[in-house]
Amino acid sequence: MIHGSRLFGKQMVAAGKSGHIVNVASALAFAPSRMMSAYATSKAAVAMLNDCCVPSWQTRGIRVVSVCPGVIDTPITGQHALCRWP
């Protein structure tokens, strides 16, 4: 997210273009989860990165936003999830 946002932002500025940088986080960025602590932490970092980039890019006509979809039933939450704590 860091490198991609920086790369696209610089390219947009160099081209004189305004627009949006959209990074996907998760609703778990705002809801700590004992079962998915590493995942929730990484998604909170995405949301914070976007918040920190806003002041730098908005003066150049670039909006930075987070998309935070809700919880979706996938195998990541299953019995063998790597980020489970005892």
What is the helix/strand order? HEHE
Largest sheet: 2 strands, parallel
Low-pLDDT segments: none
User: Which outline best applies?
Assistant: elongated
| Strand numbers in spatial order across the main sheet | 1-2
Q: Which structural class matches the secondary elements?
A: alpha+beta
What's the count of strands?
Answer: 2
Average of pLDDT? 85
DSSP helix count?
A: 2
Q: Summarize the amount of helix as a percent range.
A: 40-55%
Percentage of β-strand residues: 5-15%
Terminal CA distance: 30 Å
Global Rg: 16 Å
What's the topology here?
Layout lengths: L1 H13 L4 E6 L12 H22 L3 E6 L19
Parallel strand pairs: 1-2
Describe the protein in words:
- The protein is α+β, with helices and mostly antiparallel strands and 86 residues long.
- 41% of the residues lie in helices and 14% in strands.
- It has 2 helices and 2 strands, in the order H-E-H-E.
- Strands 1-2 form a two-stranded parallel ribbon.
- Helix 2 links the parallel strand 1 (19-24) and strand 2.
- The mean pLDDT is 85.
Key traits:
about 90 residues, alpha+beta, two-stranded parallel ribbon, 2 helices, elongated
In short:
By secondary structure, this protein is an alpha+beta fold.
